[in-house]
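Exercise 3.2. Students should predict the tertiary structure of the chain below and write it as structure tokens, then compare their answer with the key that follows.

Predict this chain's 3D structure.
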Amino acid sequence: MNDIAANVKIVQQRIQAAEKKFSKLAETITLLAVSKKQSVEKIKGAAAAGLHAFGENYVQEALPKIEALPHLEWHFIGAIQSNKCVPIAEHFSWVHALSSATIAQRLNKARPIDSPPLNVCIQVNLEGSSNKAGIAPNEVLALAQFVMTLPKLRLRGLMTLPEPSTDFEAQRQPFRQLARLLLDLQQAGLSVDTLSMGMSQDCEAAIAEGATIVRIGTAIFGERV
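Answer key:
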């Protein structure tokens, strides 16, 4: 657990350095710990180190963790299967990978009436890759406008998962494109504020382009086995 605490501190220092370097407001970026395949004990270690937001990819794996640690903020960051909409809507505070009106309707219908609206981000497939989820950039506005009509969902912004690159400027390009899409939504009159982008290997590039949530797993918990 000491390793996790040390890793959290290093990641926080990376974020703070990037905020300073790229003139971003300090402490405006949420560090989302990607905890898939991690034990409850390891998540407790990360929480003890000061983290409160955790991201999960698989519903059945996540539910026991949420039951054990209900005081934490849980984000669903995986692909959303139709038959998993009910437990996602019931147990998570955020969804990062919304990519269809049908799924949006199902999440809205399943969200408990006594829960606050479910925060959602639309996943954008910037490269048009056939092996990645998400919608095309030219479909974002229509889906965003539809989501805004659903009372139990709160559209927060956009998410992307670009192809990996080790070149810093190349890393920045898709994040810059996503930031422009968010600006387009704002200029169309939509109240959105979130860019969920950047992971362990490219969070600095994402911060440079305006990320508000970075999704970090390996740099906190180490390589999954």
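Discussion points: The chain has one domain: 2-221. Residues 57 and 78 are 4 Å apart (CA to CA).
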